[in-house]
Amino acid sequence: MDNSYSSLPNLRVTGANGIDYAYRDAGAGDGVPLVLLQHFRGNLDSWDPALIDALASGRRVVTFDNVGVGGSSGTTPRTVEQMASDAIVFLEAMEFEQVDVLGFSLGSFVAQEIALTRPAIVRRLVLASSAPQGADGMHGWAPEVIGAIGKRETSAEEYLSVFFAGSPSSIAAGKKTLQGVYGRTDGRDTATSWETRNAQYDAVCTWGIPDHAALQRLSCLTLPVFVANGNSDPMILPHYSYLLAGLIPHAQLKIYPDSAHGFLFQHHAEFAADVGSFLNG
């Protein structure tokens, strides 16, 4: 039987808010599960199966669509704070008493807010391609970035231009990622809607309104945190990773070479090993 992420069934659980959350459950183990939070416009199928399989080789890994995204019901909220609240309802519906959380891009904003709002439920936190709330220069993305991945219809070339660096090795890794992401033909998740795109970008822009006082909130994150990014990320510049790691008391930082926003897909084996070592403490 094939237990790889690309063959897992789409499952559903109903939260106390009445939302039916779509999710997939990978790996096994009695330890603390690792819950993943997806990027802007992403759904269950937007994760590279190679990364999930590597992460799930030694632990339980759960991916899910937040409210109004992909196969989950409801309307996508327009603030990161509400997204975090909705994610906590999912964790409660899954009867998770404590989790490790890996947030990617927009998902990393939500992950920060979950850890601040409900610190007892998050044991360790991984922030991939992330930035702190209120950081200067984060009020929306550069025109060439949102022009590439924010249109109604996007192309593989535009995805590669943001998620991967321009080198031959990075582009080759990006094409391999796309093969994995689109390799599943049966039981695919529902595509994210234009309404979700607009709501999520509203949340991104609101999160990025310059606010130096908001940066101080991160001093409350006393749990272990792993901050990571690619060295050529045009969407969330690497210097935000340095800022984030400097604001969080117990943060570790790693910048992966020759990679961009999708560094965790390009360097999936190395990143999964680093995450595993971090989570194992």
What does the secondary structure layout of this molecule look like, with pairings?
Layout: E1 11-14, E2 20-26, E3 34-37, H1 49-55, E4 61-64, H2 80-93, E5 99-104, H3 106-117, E6 122-128, H4 143-149, H5 156-163, H6 168-181, H7 194-207, H8 212-215, E7 225-230, H9 238-247, E8 251-256, H10 263-266, H11 268-280
Parallel strand pairs: 3-4, 3-5, 5-6, 6-7, 7-8
Antiparallel strand pairs: 1-2, 2-4
Helix pairs in contact: 1-11, 2-3
Keywords:
8-stranded mixed beta sheet, Rossmann fold, alpha/beta, 281 residues, 11 helices, globular
Report on this model:
With 281 residues, this protein is α/β, with parallel strands linked by helices. α1 (49-55) runs parallel beside α11 and α2 (80-93) packs across α3 (106-117). The protein is built from eleven helices and eight strands. The protein has a single domain, classed as 3-Layer(aba) Sandwich (Rossmann fold), CATH 3.40.50. It has helices spanning 49-55, 80-93, 106-117, 143-149, 156-163, 168-181, 194-207, 212-215, 238-247, 263-266, 268-280; strands at residues 11-14, 20-26, 34-37, 61-64, 99-104, 122-128, 225-230, 251-256.
